[in-house]
UniProtKB/TrEMBL annotation:
<keyword id="KW-0805">Transcription regulation</keyword>
<keyword id="KW-0804">Transcription</keyword>
<protein>
    <submittedName>
        <fullName>TetR/AcrR family transcriptional regulator</fullName>
    </submittedName>
</protein>
<keyword id="KW-0238">DNA-binding</keyword>
<dbReference type="Pfam" id="PF00440">
    <property type="entry name" value="TetR_N"/>
</dbReference>
<feature type="DNA-binding region" description="H-T-H motif">
    <location>
        <begin position="40"/>
        <end position="59"/>
    </location>
</feature>
<dbReference type="InterPro" id="IPR011075">
    <property type="entry name" value="TetR_C"/>
</dbReference>
<dbReference type="InterPro" id="IPR001647">
    <property type="entry name" value="HTH_TetR"/>
</dbReference>
<dbReference type="InterPro" id="IPR036271">
    <property type="entry name" value="Tet_transcr_reg_TetR-rel_C_sf"/>
</dbReference>
<dbReference type="InterPro" id="IPR009057">
    <property type="entry name" value="Homeodomain-like_sf"/>
</dbReference>
<dbReference type="Pfam" id="PF16859">
    <property type="entry name" value="TetR_C_11"/>
</dbReference>
<dbReference type="InterPro" id="IPR050109">
    <property type="entry name" value="HTH-type_TetR-like_transc_reg"/>
</dbReference>
<feature type="domain" description="HTH tetR-type">
    <location>
        <begin position="17"/>
        <end position="77"/>
    </location>
</feature>
<dbReference type="InterPro" id="IPR023772">
    <property type="entry name" value="DNA-bd_HTH_TetR-type_CS"/>
</dbReference>
């Protein structure tokens, strides 16, 4: 977990003005239409009415471009100052707000991307650095503060606990095919995460 959080994305030159947002929007559209495997830099350049040279100045590979596009669509950079004063409040703020689990992103897009992760090393690397790392870092800080506040029992496996909410959301989304909702997030927090956090302190 910490290895992913410590990894940092390589800095690349920005595309001027609003062109970068237009290119990222076009990337999501092409990704939804063609899927990751069939997506090409040419297709994105055509959809965005940009030159391929413009794309390659900012993104070395299509993996970097695609991960930047879904990161932006899911709210990236994620806020790094979530601190409501309680574990429950932090988890709700992190999971239900902009960039959280309920942010709009077609299931077909994310499902196709997760499938491609298993066979594309460039995509794995970009996904870990640019998408997962900032989110893992925020989650780690949320749970570290909860430990310091005494909200988590001394006998609790904090790393495993921190993975429970995203694991259940992924199960609902990509195994059951059910779009995550705020209600689902609250149910998991109130009936799974918080009782488990108390550990042997639970009555």
């Amino acid at each position: 977990m910490n290895d992913v959080a410590d990894a940092g994305p390589r800095l690349r030159p920005r595309v001027e003005g609003g062109r970068e947002e237009e290119i990222l929007d076009a990337t999501v559209e092409v990704l939804a239409e063609l899927g990751y495997d069939r997506l090409t830099m040419d297709a994105v350049a055509t959809a965005a009415k940009a030159s391929k040279a413009t794309l390659y100045r900012r993104w070395t590979t299509k993996a970097e471009l695609v991960v930047d596009a879904i990161s932006r669509a899911k709210g990236c950079p994620v806020p790094n100052d979530i601190d409501t004063g309680s574990l429950r409040g932090d988890l709700i703020s992190m999971s239900c707000g902009e960039g959280g689990f309920t942010s709009e992103m077609p299931l077909s897009v994310m499902a196709g991307l997760l499938t491609a992760l298993h066979r594309d090393e460039d995509l794995q690397k970009a996904f870990k650095q640019n998408f997962l790392a900032p989110r893992v870092a925020v989650t780690t800080r949320v749970y570290e503060r909860a430990v310091r506040r005494g909200e988590i029992g001394a006998d609790v496996d904090v790393e495993l606990l921190s993975q429970t909410l995203p694991a259940l959301v992924v199960h609902h989304a990509f195994v059951l095919g059910i779009e995550p909702t705020d209600d689902l997030i609250l149910r998991v927090i109130d009936h799974v995460i918080l009782p488990a956090a108390r550990g042997s302190q639970a009555s």
